[in-house]
Each structure stands twice: as C-alpha cells, then as structure tokens.
Amino acid sequence: MTASSSEIKPLSTPVEEVAQKLESPQDIGFVFDIDGVLLKGKKRIAEATEIITYLSKKKIPFILLTNGGGMTEKKRIDFINMTLQLTETPIHEDQLIQAHTPMKTLIPHHKRVLICGGPKDDVREVAEGYGFEDVIRPVDLIRANPTIWPYHMFTDEQIEEWGRDPASSKLDVDGTGCGENLPIDSVLCFNDSRAIGAELQVILDLLNSEDGVLGTRRTYKSGKPSIPIVFSNNDFLWSNEYKQPRFAMGALKIAVLTIYEKINGQKLEQLTLGKPEKVCYDYAHHILIDWRKVLLGEKQPGNLCLPQLNDPPINTPFKKVYMVGDNPESDITGGNNYNWGTILVRTGVYQEGDFERNPETSRPSLGIFPNVKEGVMAALKLNGLA
Ligand SMILES: [Mg+2]
C-alpha cells in the first residue's frame, strides 16, 4: 500500500520565505557546502567563481561548511582559491569549517588522543596544528606491537615513515618495550578510514579498556565507554568515479556501534559532528558572526572565536542566513532544522525526480536552482539586496 502524501512526514520543515527589504549587506549571511556547490570533484563550477567574487566585493558575509576533511584548513582553502581562480578576492582559511574543525574545542580535556582516518599520516599534522598535545595514530600502535592487528596492510616502509617510535609515543603495548604505556584520553575519528580493520579493533579495545590503557579490559559492561569517542560526521556514503556510492565514516560508525553493543549489551554513548547535526550549525553560526565582524573591521582575521560545542549564539546580528547545498539529507535537513533559509543546487548529488522517488527528503525553503550563483542572487533579490 502506498502512503498518502498527508501521512508522509518530511525530514525537516523549511522556514517560510517572505520578501523583505534588508538595509545592509551585513544583514544577510551565506553558508556554502563545497563539493557539488563550488567544486565538482577537483574542478571548479564556473558560476561559483562569479558569485564568491561578487559576495566578497559587496562585503556580504559567507563561510564554507563541509563534512570533508583529512587535511589542514589552510591546504584546503589554498586548493579552493586556486581552483576557483580567486586571485583577486581569495577566501580566508578562517571562513572554512571542515568536519573535524570543531574538534579543536576538545583540546583542554583531551590531551592524549587516538586520531583515526585520513590519507597517509596527514591528519596527525591537522591534529597537532589544532594544538592537541599528544597525538597517537593507529599505525603507532601497530609499530609498537604488530600483533594488535596482525592483518594490517601497512608496508614496513609505511610503518617506519608514518608510525612514531614507541618510546617517543609512550606505547609499551606488550610490556616489553619502553616501560611506559600511558592511557589515551579519547578517540577522535577525523576522516574516512583507510585501515578500517585495524581502526575497528583498536577503537573497540580502547572503549572497553580500563581508563584508556591499551592491553587492559574493564570488568563491567556499560553504555558509557571507558573513554569518549567523537565522529567528525555521519555520512554513510560518498561518490567517486565508481558506478556505485562508496562507504564513508557513517559505515565505520555503524560497525563500532554494533560491535560495542554486542560486547556491552547497551548502546554506545558517543558524539557525532558534521551536517546535519545541530552542534555543527551552532559552531558555524558563531564563525559566521565573527567573520561579519572581520568585514566590519571589528576583528582581525586569524583571531576568530573558538565556539564551544552545543553552545548556540545567544544573539545574532543576521536578519537572514541561507545554507546552500547539493545534498538534501545533510545540507538542507540541517539548514531547515536550524531555521535558516535553504537553497538546493543541481550541480551535485541532488538529481531531478529525487523528491518524487523519496517524498520524505527535506525540501529547500527558497527552491532548487541550476547553480550556486542563481540561488544566491534569488536570495539577495527576495531580501532587497540585489
Ligand atoms: Mg556537497
């Protein structure tokens, strides 16, 4: 039996769009997804260059919000500026929030952290750049004791190049090495796993350890893990050149949650960042407000606030904020739930007919547009700014 439309609950309800006459370009703000909105793979979307240049020249505040990561904010923004050919009005790295950027806020209480995911050993540089004092990677554990996951596929050269010496990382995993085996404070999944078997094993080891000490096993079962775990996003699939979508971090998360529940008989308490989570939009809202201050000369770039997690701004200077994305499930759902206006573009994952095939998909408040430029210009016109 097919459900009638009145029985179908949308994932999120868009705000009602009303025409208004905003007075200042800084009354409005835009939050852009990157992949499928500004870039298509490694190539630019031409209209993105035009509209980003336009917004920068008009001093209209905007930031970029992506569930991607695995590299420093500086590296990604340099790549975006180069690809979009934004030599005249480059985007500042302060304007970029990657999935793992809000992890910075954890630093005061998370000194020694296991950082999972990402290509090669790149996320070690990211985490150390954020200021984490003592960064441990799964490859460090394998270097300290390969029997922790004997099926690993790292070559000797990779272990030597990417893994830290066990004495310097204080990892005496088998009790025969440096004599120290310091506890780990938390597990932070920064980016998609490249060594999913090894990561699953060591993550579950730590969540069920005695206070984060590897090689130990706690004697009780609980939904609360021995040390906290944070996932940078909940994306289940991503697209590449292959015909079918590929597993992303959400798949690792399902595996961790399922195995944890099998061991403990209770659901794992964890934190997930990224779109469409509210925690991610709260963070983004703070950064957008601060970037507006930079445009007004009230703040210097490089000196933006560090918003705390789950701490929404008390006041906002914006009369309207739009989330612009290509993915109804993350960008549009998150934006609608946050009471922002939402703009869906046709240059990415959204395909014609998706709403008919999937009536529960979140719909954008302003509409579906051929590209980012047309969407933003429609928003500016509706709000009396173009
Ligand atoms: Mg996208």
UniProtKB/TrEMBL annotation:
SUPFAM superfamilies noted in UniProt: HAD-like
GO BP: any one term: glycerophospholipid biosynthetic process
Annotated GO CC locations: mitochondrion
InterPro entries: CDP-alcohol_PTase-I, HAD-like_sf, HAD-SF_hydro_IIA, HAD-SF_hydro_IIA_CECR5, HAD_sf
Superkingdom field: Eukaryota
Name of this chain's protein: TIGR01456 family HAD hydrolase
Origin species: Pichia membranifaciens NRRL Y-2026
